[in-house]
Amino acid sequence: MANFHKLSIKKITRQTNKSVTLSFNVPDTLKQNFNFKAGQYITLKTSINGEEIRRDYSLCSSPKSGDITVAVKEVENGTFSKYANNTLKENDVLEVAEPQGRFIFLPDSSKTRTIAAFAAGSGITPILSIAKTVLEEEPNSTFVLVYGNKTTEDTIFLNEILNLHHQYKDRFDVKFVYSQSQEPDALFGRIEKSTVNLIVKNKYKHTTINAFYLCGPEAMIHTVKDVLTENNVDKDNVFFELFKVAKTEQIIENAVNTGETKIKVIVDDEEETFIMKQSQTILEAALDKDLDAPYSCQGGICSSCIARVTEGEATMRQNNILTDNEVAEGLILTCQAHPKSSKIVVDYDDV
Q1: How confident is the model at residue 256 (pLDDT cuts 50, 70, 90)?
Q2: Residue 279 in contact with residue 257, Cβ under 8 Å?
Q3: What would the pLDDT profile of 275-303 be if each residue is shown by its tens digit?
Q4: Nearest residue to 209 via CA among 141, 132, 306, 131
């Protein structure tokens, strides 16, 4: 469950013309609550023009630093991102959920390994946290970063990454990719098949890369995953997180029925039973009943709304989070799940 706490903003740093980082003050009484693993995210909640807004942002700081810092890139028609970039001030208070997420790196100081990452745009945020963790907590390990942007001016954390490269020059290799400017020692274009092959078949062909972390748009992630598969990289060593799902009209229409389902929802040790339309998602139905079901993105990108089906059946319109084994065990993304059976039991506590 997402537990929210009111935290004040300690510092706002302008990263690019369209992005800022927000660092939060965490009182000593909540330090344990905000311990996190590299790669995890927090959910920010506030009210803008009378409407409750929730947004997920990956932590860019390392767990060892003790800092709770996220980057917010302003996007077109983005309600919270515009608010964060243009209106928020230091000492303002937001509701902040405790860290969560399954896109994680667990350091082991006894290991000697090579970790590679492909990031594009604001997808750098969790990757930066993972890179810092490898460099800080695995003194014998190496980190390889491929980072794509339009131009240097659009590159979030450019100076911080260059400083890390200088500090750990023997253990941190970075290759920038720019699609709208040609820069010395950088690749021109986008992260594509040739970019991935440059790393695995050329620059590091004699090195065993133990894990790959991917974060960015869906198309980039699919491209990198496909090329890694072609190069016989074990899928269990490839981890990814989307920050934006490509728009699609190909929702599984035949999975969404027009009937009704008797649903029991278990959340925070409380149960509620009611009738819902099968055309609704389970999360929509729960929120319509004012249940305190956890959620954030409502787009199938984060893992906030995961629950377990303990009786009955549900079908997800899309799934970018759960593994096949987890789905087989009954886990669903409730923001994407529609009931198929006449009766269903959904347990948010059993995850």
Answers
A1: low
A2: yes
A3: 999 999 999 999 999 998 998 878 787 88
A4: 141
Tokens of 271: 């149960």
Under DSSP, is residue 153 helix (H, G, I), strand (E, B) or coil?
helix
**CA–CA distance, 13 with 19 (Å, rounded to integer):** 9
Structure token pair of residue 267: 């959340």
Span 6-15, pLDDT tens digits: 999 999 999 9
What are the backbone dihedrals phi and psi of residue 318, each rounded to the nearest 5 degrees, phi first?
-155, 155
Q: Rounded to an integer, what distance in angstroms lies between the CA atom of residue 111 and that of residue 288?
A: 49
How much is the pTM? 0.84
CA 314 – CA 278 distance, rounded (Å): 9
Three-state secondary structure call for residue 97 = strand
The Cα 282–Cα 285 span in angstroms is 5
Core vs surface per residue 207-239: b (16+ CB within 10 A) or e? eebebbbbbbbbebbebbbebbeeeebeeeebb
The whole-angstrom separation of Cα 132 and Cα 169 is 13
For the record, the structure tokens of 18 come out as 């369209």
- Calpha distance 71→155 (Å, rounded): 12
> 255-272: string of b/e by CB count within 10 Å (b at 16+)?
ebeeeebebbbbbeeeee
**CA atoms 302, 189, 194, 206: torsion sign:** negative
* Nearest CA among 137, 105, 114 for reference residue 199: 114
Spatial CB neighbours of 53, under 8 Å, sequence gap ≥ 6:
45, 46, 47, 79, 80, 83
DSSP category for residue 105 = B
CA distance 132 to 308: 34
Helical pair 124-137 and 158-167, crossing angle rounded to 10 deg: 20
Please tell me the total number of residues recorded for the chain in this structure: 351
- pLDDT on residue 176: 97
**Where does residue 247 fall: left (phi above 0), alpha (psi -120 to 50 degrees), or beta otherwise?**
beta
